Amino acid sequence: MGNYKHHVTLPHFPRANGQIERAVQTVKNSLTKAAEEGKDLYVVLLDYRIQPAKDMPSPAELLMGRTFLPSYPGQLKPTFDVERARKTLKKRQIIQNKYTNKHATMLPVLHQNAKVWFKHKMKEPWKQGTIIQVGPQPHSYIIKGEDGGVFRRNRFHIRQDNTENDNPRWSRTVEDLYNRDATEISRVPNDSADSQINASPKTNRSNISQQFQVPIETFSEQRNTVV
Question: What's the pLDDT score for residue 188?
Fold first, then answer.
């Protein structure tokens, strides 16, 4: 057999296999439109396979390296410039990658034995676990959940667990109250990919005044005792 390597994509992360997902979307849309118009599905698939792009050969010709049903053996050889087609495809992928990463954010790298939150299922709450293996694919992590289950997830679906680094509460004065950071980080992460990389959270003074209200009498007593 040939020298094949099977690279599986991460669960619940279809964008890691974007080229195939885009082809599936195109075929689905074509089949839906064909069903609405009463066309033969196989004819629609044939048109998709043999239709060349404006700057590249058709998908079938790229796959086989030749046109179909040759009338003589000479047509078995590619009729297009293979190297040029490869460079054109590479250039197109670079442009697509540029616009895709324009608004992307690089998340911090996590390490083995790190405590994390991760998504078990996309519509369920976050779960806690421990990273037991990093990789081998990029942005891939093997996580052991608190229930003993082992899961493979992309970095996009993982948040670092900062609860073990929480400092214990200490007695604060009124000055300490307004000098400290006004917002405490939530123990359970939200679904935003940027939630854990914002350097300074927003201040909510209304919550401060409701949580730490000092009676007016206390200030009056302190003012009267000042020499």
Answer: 64
Chain centroid to CA 100: 12
Written in H, E and C, the secondary structure of 32-75 is: HHHHHHCCCHHHHHHHHHHCCCCCCCCHHHHHHCCCCCCCCHHH
Q: What is the DSSP letter of 195?
A: T
Give the pLDDT confidence of 76-92 residue by residue, as tens digits: 677 788 899 999 999 99
Short-list 131, 136, 135, 134, CA closest to 150: 131
158 sits in which H/E element: strand 158-160
Residue 166 has what pLDDT?
A: 52
Q: Which residue has the tokens 């040029």?
A: 84
pLDDT for the residue numbered 226: 44
Cα gap 91→89, rounded to integer Å:
5
Q: Are strands 150-154 and 158-160 parallel, antiparallel or unpaired?
A: unpaired
* Tokens 């959940």 found at: 145
185, two tokens: 């980080």
SS3 category, 223: helix
The residues that bridge with 127 in the sheet, in sequence order, are 118
Q: Closest Cα partner for 28 from 43, 14, 41?
A: 41
Residue 142 has which token pair? 């093997």
Phi and psi at residue 80, to the nearest 5°? -120, 165
**Lowest-pLDDT choice from 70-79, 158-167, 192-201:** 192-201
CB 173 within 8 A of CB 191: no
